[in-house]
Amino acid sequence: MKQHTPQQLQVFLxxxxxxxxxxxxxxxxxxxxxxxxxxxxRPGDLVTAADKAAEVEILKVLERHVPDHGIxxxxxxEQGNKQSQYLWAIDPLDGTTNYAHQYPIASVSIGLLIDxxxxxxxxxxxxxxxxxxxxxxxxxTCNRRPITxxxxxxxxxxxxxxxxxxxxxxTSDNNYAEFCYLTHLTQGVRRAGSASLDLxxxxxxxxxxxxxxxxxxxxxxxxxxxxxxAGGKVTAYDQSPLIVNSGRLLATNGQIHASLSKELLQVxxxxxxxxx
Length: 276
Ligand code: IPD
Ligand code: CA
Ligand code: CA
Hints:
Layout (H helix, E strand, L loop, with lengths): L5 H25 L6 E3 L6 E3 H17 L4 E4 L3 E4 L5 E9 L1 H5 L6 E8 L2 E9 L4 E6 L3 E4 L2 E2 L12 E4 L13 H10 L2 E3 L4 H9 L5 E4 L4 H13 L3 E3 L13 E4 L4 H8 L12
The chain binds D-MYO-inositol-1-phosphate (IPD) and calcium ion (2 copies).
């Protein structure tokens, strides 16, 4: 496995940034002007002309700079060089439901896995003009200023965020019980609607922790790099090493990691939470 120099990672970070900014401009162009909003299969899983156009723009940037890399893009799937050690995980619009309702929590998320490990990430929210960037060993920034996680060390003093996957009506493993239980134990649990921004908000200390299931690599690759480089911790719910493809992750400021993991592993059934 080849180690990458900081200079090499910086080149990839600049490519990710170029792609995120270009896609962000497309999202702004379509804002409030969507003519048609389709469902992709499951109820509530939306796709719009903005998702598709933003993805085309990202693919053009990657084709120009790294035509021999692999790509996993939410709307057009796996493509490019499948043997490559590089895999770009792309979400052209993370927070489509928010975007479709003109609720301005949405982003472009561009992550790069090298040998399966998230190493570069750019997440851009064009509606708040916030650009989050990080690469392994190079630190994490928001609008070019260094960011770090919060110092909250008690779960009872923490503010958390989570989300609910589109299969939530089809499975009892839908995170509803976890949401209620953690709401009970903390200062609150937000559901902002963009997984990549959830990770960035923990990375910059606005929130103390995040967990979710049913996620895809394009939702989380960039945000994982942001959080780790900001001093946070990302694992599976049980604190074992994260498997990006498992879709399930626990991401915190590090301080509340063990206690949040412990609670996630002992969530009481939904019917009992109100009497805790
Ligand atoms: C969704 C968002 C949401 C999360 C869902 C994702 P999309 O991505 O990140 O916060 O809860 O699981 O699928 O569909 O808006 O790209
Ligand atoms: Ca997404
Ligand atoms: Ca998306």
